[in-house]
Amino acid sequence: MKVTVVGAGAVGASCAEYIAIKDFASEVVLIDIKEGFAEGKAMDLMQTASLNGFDTRIVGVTNDYSKTAGSDVAVITSGIPRKPGMTREELIGTNANIVKSVVEQLVKYSPNVIVIVVSNPMDTMAYLVHKATKLPKNHIIGMGGALDSARFKYRLAEALNSPISDVDGMVIAAHSDSGMLPLTRLASYRGVPVTEFLSADRLNQVAEDTKVGGATLTKLLGTSAWYAPGAAVSALVQAIACDQKKLFPCSVLLEGEYGQKDVCVGVPVIIGKNGVEKIVEVKLNDAEKAKFAESTGAVREVNKALAN
Ligand code: NAI
Q1: What is the pTM of this model?
Q2: pLDDT at residue 71 tops 80
Q3: What distance in angstroms lies between residue 11's CA and the mean position of ligand 1's atoms?
């Protein structure tokens, strides 16, 4: 399995590190536009190989896409991150140009690649990749829900005072502060609905803390987070590499599912060797359906900027 990671910044380097540590890929190509930057990150990471015990070869490249040829999976993290007080949507102008030029280069050298889109505003960037390439729709995966769900589980465990591995929960809809939909009704603590343990007010607080999870970290760090985003991407890459058939919420092109068409937004999907192998339609209640539709409407509004 050859994996290309575009953007050797905070998220790109973190995801390359997790992929290498898990040792399921033969090669990771880290590519960046900044002269020597990816080479430096790759060299530093390779010098952890004997310490961390992995055999994955990490290669750093400045802008030479011929080195990415034959990639099975490519992760796009290139672009600017938000600063405190910014929304993800404000990044669109700069990042749309970057993502478009990057994916054209990637597909030129790896026509059958599975693309994982990370750059924000992620749902719109995933849609842009559909429009800019002829890749089959199961080969385009937007990463947002896997991270938001990990943040939801962190907040649930905090509220329940339980280990994180004992809780389960999922966040669907747009990867934006206002658009995320943490499915509190379906969250569980060892199979028992969390509604048995937490009041409606406490659960609402968990949902709100989850929705601003990225903004909270951006305020603390002065830039957006990287460990959990990198881990979420590496989990998706591993699900493809090892054909795990794992369920993650991901931003994928909807063609009638959840009552939506011609838009990428977060829904539960099965990820395996073919990329998105199935879209899972969870029965939502009326309030959830209304929130999902509102969130998707907001993504469509952001998508309009792509026409300019
Ligand atoms: P960063 O600034 O640390 O790294 C971005 C890298 O992209 C830089 O090294 C830059 O030189 C490179 N780059 C810029 N233009 C390029 C081009 N044309 N070709 C190749 N490389 C290029 O930013 P960070 O923190 O890694 O964030 C990257 C993106 O990921 C941002 O848009 C951020 O908002 C997004 N993000 C998305 C998340 C998600 O859940 N979908 C989570 C966290 C971040």
Answers
A1: 0.98
A2: yes
A3: 7
